[in-house]
Design brief:
24% of the residues are buried. The protein has one domain. The strands form 2 sheets. The protein has a 6-stranded antiparallel beta sheet, covered by helices on one side. 15% of the residues lie in helices and 28% in strands. The mean pLDDT is 89. The N and C termini lie far apart (34 Å). The chain is α+β, with helices and mostly antiparallel strands.
Length: 139
């Protein structure tokens, strides 16, 4: 019997920024909202199913517009275990995912604006195509 294999190619049309900050998750979302004029709202947890079929939950704030969305993730799982959305960047406390379709912002503008948020100690743009765990952002 001949087997057919289904290959799916995903498009990663978003930017990812890693954030180091010692403030609580909700306070960072509040500071970003206040400084950038966004309306990040707490959403139900972002769930990732691992290779062992275990589901892990990560905190998520989201702001949707007609043209795209901005999502703020807690990099470390909400469980007591040390599981990360991006294990290769476990030193980042939080991650921001912004769609390319946000036509009013460029990657550099978003990075520059986020650097000015006072409770963000360090921020860096991550190259999505080089991330080993980029599929963890797909919903």
């Amino acid at each position: 019997m001949k087997k057919t294999r289904l290959n799916i190619e995903f498009t990663y049309d978003f930017w990812v920024f890693g954030i180091s900050s010692s403030v609580k998750f909700f306070k960072l979302a509040w500071a970003i909202n206040k400084f950038l004029g966004l309306q990040l709202i707490r959403e139900s947890d972002h769930l990732i199913v691992g290779k062992d079929a275990k589901t892990t939950a990560f905190g998520l704030f989201r702001w949707d517009t007609e043209t795209g969305s901005v999502e703020l993730f807690k990099n470390k799982s909400l469980d007591a275990e040390r599981v990360y959305i991006l294990p290769e960047f476990s030193h980042f406390d939080y991650l921001v995912k912004a769609d390319y379709s946000l036509q009013s912002f460029s990657k550099e503008e978003i990075l520059k604006e986020l650097k000015d948020v006072e409770c963000i100690e360090y921020i860096a743009a991550l190259e999505v195509n080089n991330l080993k765990s980029k599929d963890n952002f797909l919903t």
